[in-house]
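Mods, move this if it's the wrong board.
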Amino acid sequence: MRSTNKVRGAVLAGAVLAAAAVAVATTPAVGTAQHPRNAPLVEAVSQLNRSTQWNLAERIKLNFPTYHPQGFARVGDRLFLSSVEIIEAPVKYPQPVAGYDRTPGKGRGHVFVLDLKGNLLKDIVLGEGNAYHPGGIDADRTSLWVPVAEYRPYSHSIVYRIDLATLQVHEEFRVADHVGGIVPDPRTGKLHGVTWGSREFYTWNSKGRQLAHTSNSSHFVDYQDCAYTERELMLCTGITNYKTATATNFELGGIALLDLKSQTIRHEVPVQLLSAAGHVATRNPVHLEADGSKLRIWAAPDDGEEVSGTEILIYEAKVG
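Not the wrong board. Structure tokens:
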């Protein structure tokens, strides 16, 4: 799973850039700065089942250091990819120490701004101290929201807002827990978060005041990347690792449509599309979009140092 002192990374002003993690929208016109969300995507996802046939439509190689990608977002002709650069990996303690099950490790958080061909346009560095692990990301109409947490459960996080018009970074609030993904609701201004392993949900107002904290009733997969879709609905993608008889890992991926008001599952379906490194496509960054009769997944499951490096895999399925 994904993996507190104010860091204000210098960022360059740029053209209007917009984003949406697991960025749920019908395919926007190239160059638009809008963040449209509508029913066709929800309807398309609701029709998925175990027999859905996915075809690999495109494979885009990322030719820069990508480290360990975490969250995806797209609006218009720009992609945002969050990633953690691990300098020193956390190490499990034999027994918990001060409430932690592992050392903090060391690292650096990144949000990469890309064009639709995977070319790197900007590297925004985020985090401070032990908080260096960006999680799942999403955007409202003006801002990209990024949680940066310590790389251990029940720790601490900083919630950042990146202005989409200027790419300026703003620290908004801090949370005394590991926030692994965040989703803004543009209708209400509320922010919804998932914890380590997505075992719990949080809701805050825009200033970081906690409004709700509940348990996740589903144990199908751990959500890694989520996004707002329409009224009171959120799409999440993720993974669960299982040990087999041969002691190897089996990765089960999944897509879930959640009701934000009741925190219950409207629909969920397994995904078993594999990358060059053998990872399930929904392992970490995912963007979903509906395009007519097609449902499209943009995924980047592999780390930079793995067999083929990080590739954006674009899968399509016919729905409806």
